[in-house]
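We treat protein structure as text, and this decision shapes the records that our systems exchange. The remainder of this section carries one protein's record, kept here as part of the documentation:
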Amino acid sequence: MNRLTTSGAGFELARYPEDPRDPFRAWDAADEYLLRRLEGADGTDPVDLSGAVVVVGDRWGALSTALAGHRPVQITDSYLAQRATLGNLARNGVDADAVRLLSARDTPPDRIDVLLVRVPKSLALLEDQLHRLAPAVHPGTVIIGTGMVKEIHTSTLKLFERIIGPTRTSLAVKKARLIFCTPGPGTAATPSPWPYRYELPAGLGPVSGRTVTNHAGIFCAERLDIGTRFFLGHLPVRTGPDRVVDLGCGNGVVGLSAALANPESKVTFIDESYQAVASAEETFRANTGPDAEADFLVGDGPAELPPASVDLVLNNPPFHSHQATTDATARAMFQGARAALRPGGELWVVGNRHLGYHTRLRRIFGNCVTVAGDPKFVVLRAVKR
C-alpha cells in the first residue's frame, strides 16, 4: 500500500488483488500530474469540477478516489480496476456510491463537462472510447488526458484530434505528460470502427476458417497471436461431459476450439476485460449451434468458480500489467486454477519459453510436463493430485 498526497489530502491506495509481494504502486506520476493540474497547483486556474465529471481508464482507482468528492463517473474495461476502486474508496472512508462505476460496454453519460482520460496501452481501446464519448462532450467540456511519456505517441494525439478536436500536449514532468483537447464541431459524426472480425486460417483444428469477433482493447485484436496459434495446435483431445474453462479468454478462440472438438463439454469463458468477454460470447455464438451451452464471466479469474468443479483449464496468461512486466497475474491464475480443478483435473498453459512457468507450476501442483515446444513457446500440463 502507498500514500498519494495532493494539495488537499492524502489517500492510502492499493492495487487489486492486494499482494504484499507486489512492488508496484496503485498510482504513478501521470496520475499526480493530472491531479495537480485540476487543482491549479501548476500556476493555472483550477478546473471547475462542479459539473459532470467522467474518468476513463483509471487503472487502480487513484483518480476516482481522489476526486470522489465530485461524484465522478468511472469508465473502465477492467473488472480489477473496478474492484481496486471500491477497495480504495473503502480504505479512505468514502462511500462506494460516491463513484458511479461503468464498464467499457455500458452506455456512457449523455453529457460530460470534464473528461479525464488515462491513456490506455491499447490505441484501439482509446479510439473506441473516444468515439463512444464524443456525442456527450460540448464546446465547454474540459478534456485532459494523462500518461507517461512512453505511453503517449503521435498516433495518440492524432486520435484525440481526429475524433474530438484540436489537441496539444504539456511539457513532461517526472516522465509524465498531459494532453489538452478542445471539442470541435461535428465530434459525434463518425462511428467507431470496432468490433473487428476476421477469418482464422487453415491448420488450426476445429476453428480453422471460423470467424472471430474482436472488440477494441483485447490482445492482438486484428490478428491471431502466435502463442495462441501454437496452443491451438496442441490442445488436449477429450470426450465426455467435461467442464472446461478458457481462463483469460480474450476473443474466446481457445475455448471455442475445445467446445467444437468435444460437443459434450461445457465451456466457461473468463476474463477481467469486459471487451474480451463480449468478444468471446459473440465468437462462440456465431460458430456454434443454438443448443450449445457456455458461460461467460467477467471477473477475477478462477476465483469466480466453485472449488473442485472443473475438469480442464486452458490458459494463455498475460505477463504484463499495463507497462510493467510481472508474473503476478500468471501466478494467481495458476493458484486459482488448482483450487477450481477436481482431483485429476488438468491445467494446460502456453507461454513464452523464457518465462519459466514450469518452475511455478511444479511449486503449485507438484508436477508439470512439457506437452510441446518450439524455440519460442511451450505448452505445459499440470495435474491436480
